[in-house]
Amino acid sequence: MPVICGATCVAALGKLGYRVLRQKGSHVRLVAPGRSPVTVPLHGELDRGTLRSIIRTVDVGVDEFVALLG
Questions:
Q1: Which of 26, 35, 46, 50 makes a 20 to 30 Å CA pair with 62?
Q2: Which fold has domain 6-69?
């Protein structure tokens, strides 16, 4: 599991078609047509459990998500 910041996670999810719906404080809500909405904290470093939950919610594999980061 990679160690990334929230902004990097949002950028990777953008490649899957997610767009920012709204932001409240340090949390941003993303939506994409035909996919589940997901909330990403814009922290300097995401906990592994939080990142795993985000990846599970968007229904992609860890390897596929890591490929989106590159």
A1: 26
A2: Metal Transport, Frataxin; Chain A (3.30.920)
